[in-house]
Write a structure and sequence with these properties.
CATH class of the largest domain in chain B: Alpha Beta
Largest interface: B-C, 73 and 73 residues
Number of strands of chain B: 11
Radius of gyration of chain A: 13 Å
Number of strands of chain A: 3
Number of helices of chain A: 5
Helix content of chain A: 40-55%
Number of helices of chain B: 13
Largest sheet of chain A: 3 strands, antiparallel
Order of helices and strands of chain B: HHEHEHEHEHEEEHHEEHEHHHEH
Shape of chain A: globular
Bound molecules: pyridoxal-5'-phosphate
Oligomer: heterotetramer
CATH superfamily of the largest domain in chain B: Type I PLP-dependent aspartate aminotransferase-like (Major domain)
Shape of chain B: globular
Structural class of chain A: alpha+beta
Strand order of the largest sheet of chain A: 1-2-3
Largest sheet of chain B: 7 strands, mixed
Strand order of the largest sheet of chain B: 1-7-6-5-4-2-3
CATH topology of the largest domain in chain B: Aspartate Aminotransferase, domain 2
CATH architecture of the largest domain in chain B: 3-Layer(aba) Sandwich
Helix content of chain B: 40-55%
Chain lengths: 122, 386, 386, 122
């Protein structure tokens, strides 16, 4: 069902955890629907220096969370905002069609984190 | 440990089937030699099935699966009795083969009462009795639930059906071969069996139709099964079903006792080792199938737990929406009013005769670190913060 | 020589199935390991079937037999399109799985035209075209007839169906695996296959549903087969069906040529050796399935001939009322206006890939004395009086 | 499907043929329905001395024809009239249920033969 890359990110997820005093935190999903993704970023000079996640969800939810943190670290905020859920799925060599909707929201969570950061610094 | 989904054929079943693939390949409906030997094998199987559920062989029709049997029973009754009434009583925890068939009939002018269950997944028989009206033509209640294992009081419901003279059907797919099923004692008019749930191959089942029951055909065509179900018989499957029934009849008590012991050990072990686990289903183990245990591991989504088990070679199933391929979690959990998040966290262990004490020990060894790891990853789980 | 009834599984088919009875027993709908390997075997089989009939794998749904496929196709279309019209065009020589389903639909408010055939069992396409009305929602014509072997001009009928924008279904059970079947070229929207007619085991078949075709469910329940057919998949049967399709595709031309040669030899041999024999079906052998020969031996009732063959180890089938279990002789013979007594005298030889030249020689050797003996016993046969 | 006795009488039918100058001939059935039984008897002093048959029909039809001739030879006409189709079937250890109707008419044919004999001697 899942690609090898998904299974890799699912079984060895990168960047699990929280960032104390995170620059921004984004959260998407609804536990009663089966997916909650929470992403923490540490921003220095418009660059995402670190990203971590906590996720309640299926294999796809965990793998996309892991992947999006990997993809975002080192990127500028604008580059990170250009990351789409589809790009995350693609980086994982694809997701099963039924998972493309609800479980593929990690980029949204990242964008939420960036937004919360931007709002906090205004 | 996902034997309620399906299981491998029991030892002896495949061996009995093999000759019917090549040497004895005839069509049991044919008059000639190639057909006759096959016909007698089919009739032997019919006797074996009849013996397991205590009916006469002539009251059995072979079908292709439990779903077909339930479609046949429910649509066939609805059509045969539509002049008598248009109301069906069933429960909210039936398998989709019953639920969706009933929902289909609602689009055809029938009315269906879906009985509620309590938080343990049990029915209120008074509510059932009150649901019966002049228009009621069918009561359909599953013998045992596939997700939580609850066993329903079929005998008592049979007495109500008899009292009100309503046709009584039970989806017995999860019960047959696991616990004792006696269609006479239960006053059943219709009951459905699916082979692959107790050691026969996939693609074969049977429906019990009490003599004299009015039932319209579901599968139109040839004269097979005394005009009750068209289609060339799945001979190898039927032979396998017969042998599986015989084995089940012979070993039912010991198998059930052995499996219940393993299940109880698993249940106790899980509750002892892991905090914040909720049992789904009736707390009294005797009121559940001996092999079934359904628990919710709070803060963890079911599929992620299932996949972790999978990597350890442990097969289970999950009530999470993600697993079922639908967007909603299990209708059974909803019917029991299980908290929506806990429903997403549910895992069903369903043991089989192949399982051993070592299997249970292995699960109990692997489970705690997996749960801990996933809880640590969960944004819903805050306890690990100091 | 009764391969149109059923046949043994082809070499290689059982071998491919075996692992899925025990080691790989998972439920293909399950997420875990036990299910995944099985799921990919099912998808391979789907590709093998698709390749044989030239459709896309996603257009196939596995079913339990040809009868189910035909019930699904016809009832499913009737229900899906009942707002559009209530008229179905079919033929008077269809298999009961089609005929009885249509007769059932007549009791539900549908109107059915059963096209006549000529004395050779062929259709008049002009009559077919004229039968189509504004109300016509389905044309259902079998690809090849099981009793007489006639092959119908499906491609031409497909062009008519396209011209009048009517859904086109073909019961292709007897054609698939024996002659080339291309659902695209034939413009088919629906087509049905039954595995046991060409070397897969009994109890498995498939329905081709062209993408975009409106078809209501027949089997309600779980989400299997992308919601189109409920019920746990008959995994071993499906794997066997796939392999049988692959073997058929690979060997179709050679097998058909070999079998036609044997059939032609049998046909010529019978007519040369025995007087007063009548061919049933189209006299041009190319317009019949390569394996089928149906003849009436005047003055002899079919079953008695069949039983005599049987005692010699030769399996055939008969159109006599006694054999079919009904009181009337074959509806196909009646549709061709075969004399009622000759209809009772009909015997079908249907050869398989297992048959050899020696088998044919053996039949040709045993047949004349049996016919002579039975004719001598017949009150209808007066020629032996001097 | 058929009992051994049926198969015996079917494959080695007794008394096949016609009787020249028969005392009586009885015929039942309809070829278009699949069964015609014709029974010939030779009667001497109210006793059936010989019986023969010709039958167009299935296994059951041929076996019952054979059996009824066997059973009638040596019997008085009244005894023979008491023979029923059911008794013939029983003597064959039974017939499949679907054959009890149309293919089990041999006693009727015998009765017809007796009747035709009695009518001829009035
Ligand atoms: C033309 C035709 N259609 C349908 C069927 C029914 O197939 P099955 O016996 O697999 O249900 C048959 C076989 O008997 C057939 O010959
Ligand atoms: C209670 C119950 N009923 C019906 C079915 C359907 O059986 P099958 O998959 O053989 O169609 C199942 C199995 O999934 C079941 O558990």
């Amino acid at each position: 069902m899942y690609t090898d890359k998904v299974m890799d990110h699912f079984s060895n997820p990168r960047n699990v955890g929280e960032i104390e005093d995170a620059s921004g935190i984004g959260e998407v999903g609804d536990a009663s629907c089966g997916d909650v993704m929470k992403i923490f970023i540490r921003v220095e000079g418009e660059i995402i220096k670190d990203a971590k996640f906590k996720t309640f969800g299926c294999g796809a939810a965990i793998a996309t969370s892991s992947m999006v943190t990997e993809m975002s670290i080192g990127k500028s905020l604008d580059e990170a905002l250009a990351l789409t859920n589809e790009a995350v799925a693609e980086a994982l060599d694809g997701l099963p069609p039924e998972k493309m909707g609800c479980s593929n929201l990690a980029a949204d969570a990242l964008h939420g984190a960036i937004k919360s950061y931007r709002e906090s610094i205004v | 440990m996902d034997n309620n989904a399906t299981m491998s054929v029991r030892p002896g079943v495949l061996e009995a089937m093999l000759p019917f693939f090549r040497e004895q390949f005839g069509n049991p409906s044919s008059v000639h030699w190639a057909g006759r030997a096959v016909n007698s094998a089919v009739e032997t199987a019919r006797e074996q099935v009849a013996a397991l559920i205590n009916c006469s062989p002539a009251e059995l029709v072979f079908v292709s699966c439990g779903s077909e049997g339930n479609n046949f029973a429910i649509k066939g009754t609805a059509e045969a009795l539509k002049e008598k009434g248009n109301h069906i009583v069933t429960t909210s925890v039936e398998h989709p083969a019953v639920l969706e068939t009933c929902e289909y009939l609602e689009t055809q002018g029938f009315e269906v009462t879906y009985l509620k269950v309590d938080k343990n997944g049990m029915l209120d028989l008074q509510e059932l009795e009150e649901a019966i009206t002049e228009q009621t033509i069918l009561i359909s209640v599953m013998w045992a639930n596939n997700e939580i294992g609850n066993i329903y009081p079929i005998d008592k419901i049979g007495r109500l059906a008899k009292k009100y003279k309503v046709c009584f059907h039970s989806d017995s797919v999860q019960a047959v071969g696991k616990i004792s099923v006696d269609v006479q004692q239960a006053n059943l008019d219709l009951a459905v069996i699916s082979g692959h749930k107790f050691g026969a191959p996939k693609g074969v089942g049977a429906i019990y139709i009490r003599r004299g029951t009015r039932l319209s055909r579901f599968m139109h065509g040839g004269h097979q099964e005394r005009n009750r179900r068209a289609g060339t018989l799945n001979v190898t499957g039927i032979v396998g079903l017969g042998v599986a029934c015989e084995l089940a009849a012979k070993n039912l008590k010991q198998d059930a006792a052995k499996i219940a012991r393993l299940r109880d050990k698993l249940e106790q072990g899980i509750f002892a080792a892991i905090p914040e686990v909720k049992l789904n289903g009736h707390p009294r183990q005797q009121l559940r199938l001996p092999n079934t245990l359904n628990v919710s591991f709070a803060y963890i989504e079911g599929e992620s737990l299932l996949l972790n088990f999978d990597m350890k070679g442990i097969a289970v199933s999950s009530g999470s929406a993600c697993t079922s391929g639908s967007l909603e979690p299990s209708h059974v959990m909803r019917a029991m009013c299980v908290d929506a998040v806990l429903a997403q966290s549910s895992i069903r262990f369903s043991l089989g005769t192949d399982n051993t004490e070592e299997d249970v020990d292995y699960v109990l060894q692997e489970l705690p670190p997996i749960v801990q790891r996933l809880r640590k990853m969960s944004p819903l789980y805050n306890r690990d913060k100091l």
